[in-house]
């Protein structure tokens, strides 16, 4: 119940914030992705 509710709460604003954070810290995300895919 809570999981499905949290999925519907994802709004374009949250997506924009995530994209903004990704653009603000590209090296941190690339390092994280590198650790995950290693």
What does this structure look like?
The protein has 38 residues and is mainly α. It has 3 helices and no strands. The longest helix is centred in the middle third of the chain and has 13 residues, at 12-24.
How are the elements arranged and paired?
Layout: H1 2-9, H2 12-24, H3 26-37
Number of H/I helices: 3
Count of beta strands: 0
Shape: flat
Range of strand content: under 5%
Q: Calculate the terminal CA-CA distance, rounded to whole Å.
A: 34 Å
- State the helical fraction: over 70%
Series of H and E elements: HHH
Structural class category: mainly alpha
Averaged pLDDT, please? Answer: 73
Biggest beta sheet summary: none
Q: Which terms summarize this structure?
A:
38 residues; mainly alpha
What would a concise description of this structure say?
The protein has 38 residues and is mostly helical. It has three helices and no strands.
């Amino acid at each position: 119940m809570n999981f499905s509710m949290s999925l519907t709460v994802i709004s374009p604003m949250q997506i924009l914030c995530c994209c903004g954070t990704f653009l603000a810290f590209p090296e941190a995300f690339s390092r994280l992705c590198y650790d995950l895919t290693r």
